[in-house]
TrEMBL record:
Its EC number is 2.4.1.1. It is an enzyme of class 2 (transferase). This is Alpha-1,4 glucan phosphorylase. Signal peptide: none annotated. Belongs to the glycogen phosphorylase family.
Length: 875
């Protein structure tokens, strides 16, 4: 079997059971005369709308059947798995709604300080399983659908991922919403309701990535509530005239006006009645179409305005770290403003309902900026306070700088957002005026503290000189916020000593901090690895809801690492998770994977800094090493199955070439009878949250091998370790803190450290050593690729040249230690008992990485908000 991937077979998992059937047990038995006992006894309660929150199997099935017949207008004798999913979602939604209403009512009555998480991305994945878990209805529901003749797992498989994000940043936002609700914190998310999520990835037979749109709303979305009553006007373009009346006010008029319509997504907390809200905005034309043009026969002109308005929330931008300086990407700027303007208008309206003065705004509102994408909220709040609320400049600036908090997610220079000044002046003329006013005040203050330091002023300005001039969004986010944080210890340190160093010197270190990222153990352990979760519950002798909410309780597993019986159970679960993955690959791709091998996984966006290239070159090295071995030598080798998955930004040529190389290497080595027993390689297309949920629990070892100092945190590293997978990585991001927790002897580290990186890059440029001398093993591998061992070698030259030439990501420096680390992994794996001990100890020490811990740090040390509990039955 080769690994040639047939593009037709790729994509979202197929729907396994399309065929319709009759709901078992729904039709009543016949009575003595052969007539149906109809209608069924419970129907009256259903019609009276008496839906109980306190569910039993009977009420679950009743509600389910009710939705089949009413909401879906389908017949109980004719329902397929997809219909069953829809009915399941709608009945679960009914329960969520009760809690959601109670929660909003509680917040309105108690008026606690609230926090708002502004993120352009929320990578939610599927909802049904999570909603049932959090509601405590999983077993009941599963029983219920089973009685109706359905299988819960098949139903869950019908749901499409909500893939409104690129990667780590978007998934982090989703984990934080889950934790906020679980910790009963009054937190709402604000984002955009993209019509198309992250593109679907297909792989052509020659290994090329092809992109297709992700029309995730085509099947309708049962999880959103359209709020046609919650709408705001958002303006673009036009002209802004200062009033020059002794106030800083201006009048912004004309241009394009677009409507923002709210869609609400309910976010249930785990094992609590708290159900928070994620509000997503959709853009709509303010007026349907232009009647004048229509009457004049200009039909295109008539719909133009409508199209232009709808375009704003049509698609998620697929960029991740690359090409963030988006020249001419006017639509992305419009997205950012549309979203921040609608969200702020909504937040201010809610605040005003409290009847407080604007001065008290920061006492009731904290706004978290997830990266610089929502930074326009800073000049937008200034605009509202000055132009609409008539506040003085300093007063307004005081309110702004006590409201916002900024999290940085990358120090890579190419990913720092900058907007061309001419574009800003065109699209947002009033905001550009305000930004200039902010710059003036700010630079005067810097000059006062560091008199005559012109270079410092140029470095710190919000405007970068050049053609065109550009607004540096990270600088604006920094000076407009109360606090600034990075996402892992090392990363926060780098933020403070590199990109924002001048700001630390100017504003003092107190404003800067760290909140190490976290992941929700509900989705990333209990849902994705139910068997392990059950074993943990039984072993800790705690209720699941206890340890899932206090993850440090996992430490109680430590003594069981010494228990042989426990280890056998632990290992057996890993094995079954491998088989589950193999089954997935068999059914979706038609490929047969061996499961009696170590599963080695690298899944993340494809990027040079993440160094998938290092991994694939390591695989090739292994392949040629195996080829040279005798049968007797090979028999002692550790069998390995290597998995890759991840998307490349559509315009990122080198990343796409990397995928191509992986796929073509797979084609050759999986077909090679000399080696295929010992080494297999797969590129799984269309990586998603749902695919991660299958891959992560199956992994023995996962790779997090970024060049030191480039990966801000990483969060999948935490997911693997929580599921008992060991980590092979560089001394970077959260890998460092994971090793601190689980112990360095349970982590495989390699490579140069961050402080060496700058110097090595300098050496590459000014004292280059030929690769053959510096790293012969790598030179040999590169030579094999180049001379066509895996198909036309010429194709890969641009990729290979990045390594032969400046080698910015230091493959030539780290390759030898990488290979040595892989050998250590093999050696360790051969001692199965010892390996399982490491696996147990790793899981046991992952408590720190719960997103509950992280969100509590934000709540306490940043936002100053408190838990606000919701009575389960309402008032
Ligand atoms: C404009 C396109 C774009 C989109 C996203 C540019 C840059 C980004 C982010 C800043 C990149 C990102 O997702 N960063 C990741 O954030 C995770 C959560 O904090 C970290 O775990 C990852 O290390 C970091 O790469």
């Amino acid at each position: 079997m080769t690994s040639t991937i047939d593009p037709k077979s790729i994509g979202r998992p197929a729907r396994p059971h399309r065929h319709a059937r009759t709901l078992t047990g729904y039709f009543p038995e016949k009575d003595a005369s052969g007539k149906d006992k109809w209608p069924r006894g419970d129907e009256k309660a259903w019609k009276d709308g008496q839906r109980s929150v306190d569910k039993d199997v009977k009420s679950v099935t009743r509600n389910f059947v009710g939705h089949v017949q009413t909401s879906l207008a389908r017949q109980a004798y004719n329902l397929d798995d997809f219909g069953a999913y829809q009915a399941a979602a709608l009945s679960t939604r009914d329960d969520l709604l009760v809690n959601w209403n109670n929660t909003q009512l509680t917040y309105t009555r108690k008026s606690p300080k609230r926090a708002y998480y502004l993120s352009l991305e929320f990578l939610m994945g599927r909802t049904l399983d999570n909603a049932l878990l959090n509601l405590g209805l999983k077993e009941t529901f599963s029983d219920g659908v089973q009685r109706l003749g359905f299988n819960m797992e098949d139903i869950l498989e019908q749901e499409r991922d909500a893939a409104l994000g690129n990667g780590g940043l978007g998934r982090l936002a989703a984990c934080y919403l889950d934790s906020s609700a679980s910790q009963e914190l009054p937190v709402w998310g604000y984002g955009l309701r993209y019509k198309y999520g992250i593109f679907q990835q297909f792989i052509s037979t020659d290994g090329e990535q092809l992109e297709a749109p992700d029309p995730w709303l085509d099947n309708q979305n049962p999880w959103e509530l359209p709020r046609l009553d919650v709408i705001y006007d958002v303006r673009f373009y036009g002209h802004a005239d200062r009033l020059n009346d002794g106030t800083p006010r201006a009048l912004w008029q004309g241009g394009q006006e677009v409507l923002a319509v709210a869609y609400d997504v309910m976010i249930p907390g785990y094992s609590t009645a708290t159900t928070n809200n994620l509000r997503l905005w959709e853009s709509k034309p303010k007026r349907g179409f232009d009647l004048n043009s229509f009457n004049a026969g200009n039909y295109e002109g008539a719909v133009e305005a409508s199209n232009s308005a709808q375009a704003i929330t049509s698609v998620l931008y697929p960029n991740d770290h690359t090409y963030v300086v988006l020249f001419g990407k006017e639509l992305r700027l419009k997205q950012q403003y549309f979203w921040t303007a609608a969200s702020l208008a909504d937040i201010i309206r809610r605040f005003k309902n409290l009847g407080k003065s604007m001065q008290e705004f920061p006492d009731y509102v904290a706004i978290q900026l997830n990266d610089t994408h929502p930074t326009l909220a800073i000049p937008e709040l200034m605009r509202i306070l000055i132009d609409d609320e008539d506040l003085r400049w300093d007063n307004a600036w005081g309110i702004v700088t006590n409201t916002f908090f900024y999290t940085n997610h990358t120090v890579l220079p190419e990913a720092l957002e900058k907007w061309p000044v001419p574009l800003m002046e065109h699209v947002l003329p009033r905001h550009m005026q305000i930004i200039y006013d902010i710059v003036l005040d700010f630079l005067l203050a810097v000059e006062k503290k560091f008199p005559g330091d012109r270079e410092r002023l140029a470095r710190m300005s919000l405007i970068e000189e050049g053609v065109p001039k550009q607004v540096r969004m990270a600088h604006l986010a920094c000076i407009g916020s109360r606090k600034v944080n990075g996402v892992a210890e090392l990363h926060s340190e780098l933020v403070q000593t590199t990109i924002l160093k001048d700001f630390v010197e100017f504003e003092g270190i107190g404003k800067f901090g760290n909140v190490t990222n976290g992941i929700t153990p509900r989705r990333w352990l209990d849902q994705c690895n139910p068997e392990l979760s059950t074993l943990i519950t039984n072993t800790l002798k705690l209720k699941k809801s206890v340890w899932l909410k206090d993850l440090t309780k996992l430490e109680g597993l430590l003594p069981f690492a010494e228990d042989k019986v426990f280890r056998a159970k632990w290992a057996a679960i890993k094995q079954r998770n491998k088989e589950r993955l193999a089954h997935y690959v068999q059914t979706t791709l038609g490929l047969t994977i061996r499961t009696d091998a170590m599963f080695d996984v690298q899944i993340k966006r494809i990027h040079e800094y993440k160094r998938q290239s290092l991994n694939i070159l390591g695989v090739i090295h292994r392949y040629f090493t195996l080829k040279k071995m005798t049968a007797a030598e090979k028999a002692k080798v550790n069998r390995r199955v290597v998995f890759f998955a991840g998307k490349a930004a559509p315009a990122y040529y080198i990343a796409k070439l990397t995928i191509r190389l992986i796929v073509n290497v797979a084609r050759i080595i999986n077909a090679d009878p000399d080696t295929k027993e010992y080494l297999q390689l797969y590129f799984l297309p269309d990586y998603s949250v749902s695919l991660a949920e299958v891959l992560i629990p199956a992994s023995d070892i996962s790779q997090h091998i970024s060049t030191a100092g480039t990966e801000a945190s990483g969060t999948s590293n935490m997911k693997f370790c929580l599921n008992g997978g060991l980590l092979l990585g560089t001394v970077d991001g959260a890998n460092i803190e994971i090793a601190e927790e689980v112990g360095e002897n349970n982590v495989f580290f390699f490579g140069h450290l961050t402080p060496a990186v700058e110097d090595l890059r300098y050496q590459h440029l000014y004292h280059p050593v030929p690769i053959e001398e510096k790293c012969p093993a790598l030179a040999e591998v590169i030579n094999q690729v180049s001379t066509g061992a895996f198909g036309d070698g010429g194709v890969y030259e641009p990729l290979l040249n990045t390594i032969r030439q400046s080698d910015y990501y230091l493959l030539t420096d780290d390759f030898d230690s990488y290979i040595a680390a892989l050998d250590m992994v093999d050696e360790a794996y051969l001692d199965k008992e010892e390996w399982v001990k490491k696996s147990i100890r790793t899981t046991a020490k992952m408590g720190k990485f719960s997103s509950d811990r992280a969100i509590n740090e934000y709540a306490e040390s940043y936002w100053n908000i408190e838990p606000t509990s919701v009575p389960p039955e309402g008032y």
